[in-house]
Amino acid sequence: MNLLKMRSWSLLVIILVVLLISGCGSGGGAASGENNPSGNGSGAGEGPTYSFRLAEAHPADYPTTKGDMRFAELVKERSDGRITIDVFPSAQLGEEKAAIEQVQLGAIEFTRVSTGPMAEFNKDYGVFSLPYIFDNDEHVWKFLLGEKGMSLLDSLQSSGLQGLGWYSSGSRSFYSSKPLASIEDLKGMKIRVQENKVNLAVMDALGASATPMPYGEVYSSLQTGVIDSAENNYPSYYSSKHYEVAPHLLLDSHQRVPEVLLVSKTVWDKLSEEDQGIIRQAALDSIEFQREEWAKYEQESEAAVRAAGVTITEVTDLQPWKDAVKPVIDSYRSEYSSILDAIEAAK
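^ that's the sequence the OP posted. Answer follows.
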């Protein structure tokens, strides 16, 4: 069986599992995305009712999951109970890349994912994987909430998706099962990255060997030596317990890769303008809540890994790092010129 057929069968199996979960958990309500005019019970508003699902890779107490849940609460409240969105955390409906594919097909209606794997579905999203293009969190949000950042949400329509809003994910740094204190230590290391061509080029520029793999496989791969290192933010490093098997953290903040809340365009196009407005505004209004939850959890995560005895080295001179990856940024400058100009202008 060739690779294409294997991938097709794998995706079909995942979709069947999702549909089975949905059927078991529906509680007799409306089928996902299906009009249920007779379902307007006491207190429900006028109009069709919908029962949707949202796929989330992180656990229930993670800041992005809390953002998802706040979004779902706002939608239910503002639609007078007509539109419900059930959040499925801990990758119950599949890891991020699989979830994106299912949302494209309309098999799942919503998902929250990192913009890292989104580059494989929309090339503009590869810009977020370019290293050191943002100075700090304030710089990131000034861009995301500006004209260019918001336009990137609508640019997904050609990929069968509609972006609804951005969530915070802090900055990404390297951690390893081996001592790690400088850029030289990365040379020859097998480092797990989110799968996109920009990440592969960045690791190559740093002298490392990029190893794309699903997030759920990272712990065991670090534990068994399949990979030497990975990179992520404080909350993911802590909540995934990666610090147990990779107790060396090098803080270089090489990427600030935001999260994005998505809906299937197939589903989106069937909604009335009023319902689209409710969902879009609820997503935007959930951002501040998610950012606050992120900031709190980030501090808690840092304190927890320090208490666990993790060796933490902060990079004080980023210039050698920026020099090493400059050829990568230069090679993509023409492809992402308008976005990079907007990022620069947001400083």
